[in-house]
Amino acid sequence: MKALIQRVSSARVEVAGEVVGDIGLGLLVLLGLDKGDDHAAAQRMLDKLLAYRVFADEQGKMNSSVTDVSGGVLLISQFTLSADTRKGLRPSFSSAMPPAEAQLLYDAMLQALVERHTEVASGQFGADMQVSMTNDGPVTFMLEV
Known about the structure:
Elements: E1 2-15, E2 18-23, E3 26-32, H1 39-51, E4 55-56, E5 62-64, E6 72-77, H2 99-116, E7 120-122, E8 129-144
Parallel strand pairs: 3-6, 6-7
Antiparallel strand pairs: 1-2, 1-3, 1-8, 4-5
Helix pairs in contact: 1-2
């Protein structure tokens, strides 16, 4: 499981021209699910996402989490993060979780996130989404569990 997280001052996602999710200050999370990922991995990722210190404290150091700053979390499924790009000029998606399984795990993770965090928005699994954001910093990290 991989999550590309970006500290944002704002982010939103549109499907067919309609905004389906948006946040102000917070984290844009692009989530890639691989074969073998399970609910335990999703829980570990969620724990890490909510506690990862990427926001400035009073001294300007990255010591605060999205929970500490009461920021939003915009969760977007992105199977392309599971691509194997080591060989050739075309990505291989053989390690990506099959769509039906991935949707179940994504939905479970989204539900757990909603239960644990106050401001949560999401994209639409499997849809053609237009994601826009203002990366604050820029600050971007790849988390893996």
